[in-house]
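Consortium newsletter contribution from the modelling node. Members have asked for a concrete example of what our holo predictions look like. Here is one, prepared for the zinc ion complex that several groups have been discussing at recent meetings.
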Amino acid sequence: MSEIPAIRSRKLEITYNIPISKTKKFWDELREGKIYATKCKKCGRLYFPPVADCGECYSSEVEWVELSGEGELLTFTHIIVRPTSFQDQQPYTVAIAQLKEGVKALAWLTDVKKKDIKIGMRVKLVPKVFEDGRVAYEFKPAEKKK
Ligand SMILES: [Zn+2]
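And here is the predicted structure:
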């Protein structure tokens, strides 16, 4: 068995430009501290993260709806063995919460000790702007009512 002559390239780091033309508003609003979902004008289905076309009735007639971000923790998992692109991160927690408006959201859960995370706890989905300008969103424990 002969090997094909080859030289090994250096390790490449790849970044993508993800097309966001139809959901650009979502990213712009995140930067302003607001969380938006899209709602199908035809069948009323709510989508988070926002989508340009309804997967339920295939309508492209969607409208923007601002979310409160308030939700209840449904499930979570601690990620110890991180994917390559997250090697520089500390172990983190990924959670799914049911938002007040009726959609589920998946995001990191931060600002809470592992032992204090409980199914059913109140969480708030908040925008996060990174130092390099990227935007994302994450869950934080909701403020306790006095
Ligand atoms: Zn629809």
